[in-house]
């Protein structure tokens, strides 16, 4: 087993945190003797922290459907189950994926709160696990507020036998972001000086995600975001972060493009089979776990390829999800996605993602074999996650250094239309250069948004980028009109799960438009 989860003794389902484990721990009751005994063992906090990361493996399982499939990057075939409903902005509060995504994040939060509630018991050598718990609690709430907007912020283990849940109402998103940022900052204090492990939260990752939260809140704080991101970029060597780019040869040299294509694919742990002809790959991509931990990855969720009948799918019911290292972050984004007609590039996206316009990112993002521009309705699939579906081997990258560089440019742009600030231009052009593109002297808001679209396609960023840039209504309404979809300005956010409304009748309010 290639990753950190080999010694995890805590397994989780989306609704009940402990089922079928060799050593059962009653996480519903953090004062139970078994929990106290565990937390006082030599490695109890480490095991629970591993359990938080293990629980989070479920979160990306259906995220693609709720984010990328609701952007202008991709589409779904009309005959494939409920996938077209996501694509058409036509889902309802009873949708299973909408409920599961909420539950999976909340389940991870619950495990994180187990550590935080017992943080004073942590020995000095395991204090970092408390920082990891604060980080993961913040990350899950960050996922939820961007998806559902007004959510409760759960900062303790709730006693299901009383009415404690009523102490956690839906909060305005500005208040949620304030708590997210506070948690990320608390995690920085705990994680400062801890050796970097890209499969675990780090101080550098917390700094960057706090900055992203500053940029994402309703009233962005560009100054704070810029200061945080600059502290990482100006010291990136010390943090261990940089772009993966060999940069060999001149811009017109085929070897140069071949190297950059391999570099960009290598960010995701992929390697090309076969050779290159005039800078164009002859073979196909496959995952190589030896490439997955590289200097561009800041924080990644591990997945392991294994033969198993017990793995999670986005369609699994809450009661039958079994946690194993063989689950994939999202079958819809892997080689099985095309067979279900899910991760098909939109025609709008393919106007920009062409071999001529994107000589590097095209070949590492798009399945060149399925690409046929002579047939406008042709199904073109993604190549970033070339693993076999439900038990795929690709890790899921939560944050990478290219994102940090472009977020820094965004912070300096500060909501304006353009910037020639040398710091922003330099950060922006580092990403452009790795993509085999010419430098820009003046970075506009639209150029930056377009660059993010090409760089992070299939990484579940496009929808949130559009919302953060204030462009979601304009872009998605036009996309919807052109494709006979059902977007309205209220559909930027998911419906609050009906199950949550039913659990506390009259307490939570449904989002507008549902």
Automatic annotation (TrEMBL):
Residues 1-22 form the signal peptide. The lineage of its organism: Bacteria, Pseudomonadati, Bacteroidota, Flavobacteriia, Flavobacteriales. GO terms for cellular component: cell outer membrane. It is found in: Cell outer membrane. SUPFAM superfamilies: TPR-like. Its main location: membrane. Residues 50-215 form the SusD-like N-terminal domain. This is RagB/SusD family nutrient uptake outer membrane protein. It comes from Pseudotamlana haliotis. Coiled coil: none annotated. Belongs to the SusD family. Residues 391-514 form the RagB/SusD domain. Keywords: Cell outer membrane, Membrane, Signal.
């Amino acid at each position: 087993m290639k990753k950190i989860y080999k010694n995890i003794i805590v397994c989780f389902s989306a609704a009940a945190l402990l089922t079928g484990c060799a050593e059962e721990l009653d996480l519903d009751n953090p004062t139970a003797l078994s929990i106290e005994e565990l937390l006082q063992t030599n490695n109890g906090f480490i095991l629970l922290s591993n359990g938080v990361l293990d629980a989070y493996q479920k979160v990306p399982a259906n995220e693609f459907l709720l984010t990328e499939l609701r952007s202008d990057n991709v589409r779904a075939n009309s005959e494939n189950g409920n996938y077209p409903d996501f694509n058409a902005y036509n889902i309802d509060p009873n949708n299973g994926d909408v409920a599961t995504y909420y539950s999976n994040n909340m389940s991870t939060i619950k495990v994180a709160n187990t550590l935080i509630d017992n943080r004073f018991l942590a020995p000095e050598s395991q204090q970092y696990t408390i920082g990891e718990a604060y980080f993961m609690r913040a990350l899950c709430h960050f996922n939820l507020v961007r998806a559902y907007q007004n959510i409760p912020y759960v900062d303790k283990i709730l006693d299901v036998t009383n009415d404690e849940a009523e102490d956690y109402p839906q909060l305005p998103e500005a208040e949620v972001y304030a708590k997210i940022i506070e948690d990320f900052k608390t995690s920085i204090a705990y994680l400062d000086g801890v050796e970097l492990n890209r499969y675990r939260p780090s101080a550098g990752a917390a700094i960057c995600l706090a900055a992203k939260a500053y940029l994402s809140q309703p009233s962005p704080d560009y100054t704070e975001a810029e200061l945080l991101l600059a502290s990482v970029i100006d010291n990136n060597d010390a943090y261990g972060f940089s772009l993966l780019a060999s940069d060999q040869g001149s811009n017109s040299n085929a070897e140069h493009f071949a190297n950059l294509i391999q570099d960009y694919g290598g960010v995701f742990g992929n390697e090309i089979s076969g050779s290159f002809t005039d800078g164009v790959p002859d073979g196909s991509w496959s995952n190589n776990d030896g490439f997955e931990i590289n200097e561009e990855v800041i924080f990644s969720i591990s997945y392991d390829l294994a033969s198993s009948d017990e793995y999670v799918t986005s369609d699994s019911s809450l009661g039958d999800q079994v946690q194993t290292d063989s689950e994939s972050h999202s079958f819809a984004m892997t080689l099985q996605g095309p067979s279900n007609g899910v991760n098909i590039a939109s025609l709008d996206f393919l106007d920009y993602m062409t071999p001529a316009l994107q000589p590097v990112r095209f070949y590492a993002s798009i399945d060149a074999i399925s690409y046929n521009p002579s047939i406008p309705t042709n199904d073109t699939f993604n190549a970033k996650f070339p693993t076999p579906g439900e038990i795929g081997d690709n890790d899921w990258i939560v944050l990478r250094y290219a994102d940090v560089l472009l977020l820094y440019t965004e912070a300096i742009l500060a909501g304006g239309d353009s910037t020639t600030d040398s710091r922003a231009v330099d950060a922006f052009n580092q990403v452009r250069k790795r993509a085999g593109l010419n430098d820009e002297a003046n970075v506009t808001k639209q150029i930056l948004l377009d660059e993010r679209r090409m760089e992070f396609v299939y990484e579940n960023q496009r929808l949130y980028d559009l919302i953060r840039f204030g462009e979601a209504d304009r872009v998605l309404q036009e996309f919807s009109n052109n494709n006979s979809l059902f977007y309205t300005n209220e559909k930027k956010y998911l419906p609050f799960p009906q199950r949550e409304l039913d659990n506390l009748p009259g307490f939570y309010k449904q989002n507008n438009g549902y």
